[in-house]
Amino acid sequence: MQLRDALDDYKRNTGHDTRFPGERRTVTGRFSGGEGRLVHVDADGELRDFGYPLTGQTGLVRSRVGLAVGDEVTWLDEVETQQRYVGDTTLIETVHETDRATVTRHDVTLGDAHLTRVTIDVGDDGHANVDPADLSLVVYARFAPDGRDNRVGQLRYDDAIEVYHADEHDFLASDTGFTDLRGQLPTTFPELLDDAPTDLPRDRDGDRYEEERLSGEVIVDAPFEDGVATVGTLLTDREETTREAARDRLAKLFDTLDDPDALAAAAGETIPSVPESVPAQESVVADLRVLSLLSAESGLRIAGPDFDPFYATSGGYGYTWFRDDAEISTFVLGADDRIGLGLDDWHARSAEMYVATQRPDGSWPHRVWPRDGALAPGWANARIEDGPDVDYQADQTGSVIAYLAQARAAGVDVEKLDATLVAALAGLDETLAADGRPVVCQNAWEDSAGRFAHTTATFLEAYSELALHGDGLDASALDRNGDADAPGRDLDPAILPDDLAAHARDQAVRVYDALDDLWVPERGCYALRETPEGTTDDRLDSSTLALASAHRSFDALGGDGEAEGHSGAVDAERLDRLVSHVETVVDGLAHESDEISGLIRYEGDGWRRAGQLSEKVWTVSTAWGANACAELAVLLADRDDPRAAEMVERARELLAHVSPGGTLCEPTSYLPEQFFDDGTPDSATPLGWPHAIRLATVALLDDELPQFTDRAVADD
Q: Whose CA is closest to 282, among 601, 698, 648?
């Protein structure tokens, strides 16, 4: 998205009830990709690239597709349109009903290429009398190579156009050639300053000869042959791909992918296949599709498509947060183990990148670029900067440790994994205060500071997983032998004891005991945080639902529970408090309107409300509620506690809200981050985190609680 587009959107949407002006929304339409490039096909058919964080290439920033009869153009974004995914793939079918013909499009992104295959049907009675030979496909496309919309040039060929700035060279080609092509300048200064938005493309202006060459904007006419025309775009780096190779690649794609079946087969190769035997297959397919779309070749993921690149109302979404990413990795690892998804390469890539991106002090930074792990813009890098460490999100390091420990136990074998875990343990110790709770830092939602129950939960889980799976770890792994890139190179091995697994267990017990400091008996729940001033903030917060999975990890350590008829480490009083906490949070954050049902993020959440007076419902909070109830049900079932059945039922009810057909799951199969009460989705869409939680919860209910699920289904 360029500034011109942001200003145009600002003009069009200022004062809108549920739209924040200056954004490029993805709450409608679908994405294709899965191997790097990420292309959005909006519900009206507009194409836009969202893959810059994944590939470093900007590509298409605006487009329109039209059907022409002579000089008369019908733009397909102005007619009745229907859209769907083809099967379990990333191939998108969009059907446009025009007065001239039914136009059926198939869009697919394969690597750095995107193909749009268009067929026309004029046989229906409702169409105006027209000879198919008189029809042509019109494509308006604006490229921003290297993120630039100025100092851009074009090279033209019989069947292709090359748009370039310096390193990035973008190609637009047609398998039937071009009958006409022209360029135009972007929105001019007078147009930008005008109160009215500018409709593009404009008519040809013969007095502006330079616009034909010195811009990223092109308009082409491609003829149909036997009712079919295919156009393709390819994003390249000049040092990696010659222009001859680029044109040959597009020509080969045109030749080999010449029908919808071939396109669907190719699209099916970009995401994991899902066996028909898995539970809730439609949901699992959608989750793996989304997580594939949001992944870079490195294995790191963006949180969601970046709808707000100018930070008009947010801090951006097209980055990797280690909290989100590591929790996604953990959820996927658990689901793979339970229902068999064959994602070994995913687990290994994630582990490799967490090893590669660890800071010298054993922690992980705020956020990075997923394509290579380089530090990305952020506001919580206190452990890199000079000064106090308050602006640091310690839960991110805890989440990465929990994943790496579980991955190690699952047989994921990557270089320097053990050394990374040892350094991470030392880094975690540095941010654990003497009273057994994490120090003052930023929270999971990144909007306040304090000593949070959620951060405490991530520490409890991290220490517990290290204690469970840390056999063989010792401080000698920090012996750097002159390796400047060794994990924990700023740490002194002498700060760690000899038996690291036992040390992690002792630390887990300290955190477990210290959690009592946050118990609020009047509300029957754990507090959101202790403020930096030392007061208790007892508001309900969905992030505290992480305590359920953390206690499951701790319980696996075993302990005093043996005297009470079970082998776990969670005692009866704590279990009662945990049940009370989960019930209080789920009930207290529940929000329902005529259109939606789910959980709000936390009490008093004022973010992106627009004109709505109450807090908005979040899919991640709702999915988290379902997962927490399921995790807690397992703890209860292990003790033959009759409350397990009720927790399973709560889990299923919350899961239904975010499952296909639920009020928080869009017809596209996507989970947006938030919803307004009128049912309008908002913010990053799709958001990877709730999709991963949904995937894990489906697998958990199927694998560890089938007796309750089967009974509940029978009762329904």
A: 698
